[in-house]
Amino acid sequence: MLALQPALKFNGGGHINHSLFWQNLCPPGEAAPPGGALAAAIAAEFGSVEALQARLSAAGAGVQGSGWAWLGWDPAARRLALGVTANQDPAGTVGLHPLLGIDCWEHSYYLQYKNARPDYLKAVWRVVNWADVGRRYEAAAAGGGAGK
Questions:
Q1: Contacts of 59 (CB under 8 A, 6+ apart)
Q2: Which end of the chain is more exposed for a tag (fewer CB within 10 A), N or C?
Q3: Distance CA 16, CA 29 (A)
């Protein structure tokens, strides 16, 4: 069992992360700014959506090699928090319920952005499904986890 743990973490994490990632995205015409309780929490924690985007993009740009940048719910602190994980490690490995995951592996952006990850991280905000992130936030803040 111990020998299987790295493969389970990598492959299971990849499935978990990508399942969330696809739900976190929407066509550009359907992307609307965050609203309601999520917008209020973002303003309280980061000052503005733009400040959140800048900080999470910087965190994603700083991922060494391949990994993920996360906006998550920190259940211990009961607030929004940012995190990064290496490879396919899920947000839970850094103590977060995932709300928004940004794939920072080259396969996510190389065909369009080549090695310019910061350009990808700037563009990805045009397709964030804030309605999905908001539902996850409300479930997590209410104590029901981040949703699936």
A1: 69, 82, 83, 84
A2: N
A3: 26
**Where do the domains of the chain lie?**
2-141
pTM above 0.85? Answer: yes
Query: Per-residue pLDDT tens for 19-77?
Result: 999 999 999 999 999 999 999 999 999 999 999 999 999 999 999 999 999 999 999 99
Find the angle CA(53)-CA(60)-CA(47) to the nearest 5 degrees: 25
The CATH number corresponding to 2-141 among 3.40.50.920, 3.55.40.20, 3.60.15.10, 2.10.109.10 equals: 3.55.40.20
Question: Where does the chain show beta strands of DSSP type E?
Answer: 67-74, 79-86, 97-103
Looking from the CA of 3 toward its CB, the CA atoms found within 13 Å total 0
